Amino acid sequence: EVQLVESGGDLVQPGGSLRLSCAGSGFTFSSYWMSWVRQAPGKGLEWVATMRQDGGEKNYADSVKGRFTISRDNAKNSLYLQMNSLRAEDTAVYYCARTQRCRTTTCLYRGLAGEGFDYWGEGTLVSVSS
Amino acid sequence: DIQLTQSPSSVSASVGDRVTITCRASQDVSGWLAWYQQKPGKAPKLLIYATSTLEGGAPSRFSGSGSGTDFIFTISGLQAEDFATYYCQQVNSFPWTFGQGTKVEVK
Fold first, then answer.
1. Given CB atoms, is A33 within the 8 Å cutoff of chain B?
2. Helix, strand, coil: what percent of chain B each, to 5?
């Protein structure tokens, strides 16, 4: 059974830092692009960052670029999100999500990272407030 | 960046109804559009990917169609467990983006 378990969420002051972790199990972690998605209280979903299997490619939302860093340790089946210079607007539930692998040759030919998020963790809450 | 606009923002419906949600992209996403269902306090669940492919385990009453910039998500025969919020997402190019969501409520 595929499982993703996030941890590390906490209450932090503006300008502070936090590191989130996501432990994957039940699948070959090193074979998948992995992502972070967040959801502010009462709001919609916002993609945050995505990382290639080997760590060679990382992509970020403009809202976090330069402040957040996605990383992974395939030997530990773990994904991380280092969050620096936190702001009140970063307050959200942060989800770890597995990016579904390409299931069509077209997707592979296009070099897409995947076709959606097929498994999600339960999320971890980050609150940024003084 | 590709903007996704869902409509309506909310819809009131009854069990058995047919519900249709549209997702319009600000530029061509080449069919790389997914749909998710989210219930309160829970993580989203993938229902449809690549415009119209049903994710394994998702009920067949869910369907998707469209191309280019205009996409439709349909629930044919709404069930009690379908009252939730639905999101579209494009994975054609980074930054990936979600629509703002459509809440399906009890009429």
1. no
2. 5, 50, 45
